Amino acid sequence: MKNILVCGAGGFIGGHLVKRLKNEGFWVRGVDLKFPEYDETVADDFMIGDLRDQGFCRAAFDTRFDEVYQLAADMGGAGFIFTGENDADIMHNSATINLNVLDACHKRNIRRVFYSSSACAYPAYNQQDPANPKCSEGSAYPAAPDSEYGWEKLFSERLYLAYRRNHGLKTHVARYHNIFGPHGAWTGGREKAPAAICRKVALARSGDTIDIWGDGQQTRSFLYVDECLEGTIRLLRSDFTGPVNIGSEEMVTINQLVDMIAEIAGKQIEKQHIDGPQGVRGRNSDNRLIREKLDWAPSSRLREGLEVTYAWIEREARRNAR
After folding, report:
1. Residue 175 burial (CB < 10 Å; 0-12/13-18/19+)?
2. Which residues of the chain form CATH 3.90.25.10?
3. Which one is catalytic: 149, 160, 163, 224?
4. CATH assignment of 180-221+250-283+301-316, among 3.30.70.940, 3.40.50.300, 3.40.190.10, 3.90.25.10
5. Count of CB atoms within 10 A of residue 91's CB?
6. pLDDT (tens digit, 9 = 90+) per residue, 130-169?
7. Is 160 noted as a catalytic residue in this protein?
8. pTM here?
């Protein structure tokens, strides 16, 4: 039986990943600052601690794991990343975690390591046209991300690739594009657009107006968490290093996203466009490389994942309103 370590197992994607790996029959240790907030962990062992602490990080790597998935990071949605108020923490915390994790992997001779980077690594100058963003993997340079979060992701990508070249680790890097689903942050400021809009619609009555940051014409693609896990595991167990996009090519405007969620809810929702952090004008996954290297790409429709996610957030919102 393989032993697997998931760093960031208390987070949204990490919690889902632990479940997926347990369903495959592996022994799984989860590590995070906290247990999953909205679900019980199914990890065989769960260590609460801070991966920024080198001593704790070494203790978490107390054996030679067959696979390590490094998802731990200081992150959130646009309201957290793009205000500028959290830049120092985002860069310091995430970079320190990655430095410690790679050092521990190297000293334990752990070979297979996955790192979750982000589409935020792509240059802002290629994402100004909401109808035609350029997010092919090779377009990341010359670098000009629109946030310090993106700059840290680029640094850490290079760190993982350097450990592969210099120390023989089989590191694999993916750039995630807006992963969503149930059991993730949906309130509090760190939630991303699908969860935030699901919450607003769930708490509204038909005919109500909800606030939308910007003009709503900015475009994005959103990937359901199950497809993210499939791509992640396929990448780690392949011979391809990356970086590679793991995202959907079904691009929508934020206004279209609101309309889709309102239709799922069976409500008539009006939009009030207000000032707020928005990020780039357009972003969409380019899946040519993942099809070529893994003979696979995400295929589920956005609405399918939104139906599941909205139903969960609606239940959570009702529970919290009592």
Report:
1. buried
2. 180-221+250-283+301-316
3. 149
4. 3.90.25.10
5. 17
6. 999 999 999 999 999 999 999 999 999 999 999 999 999 9
7. no
8. 0.95
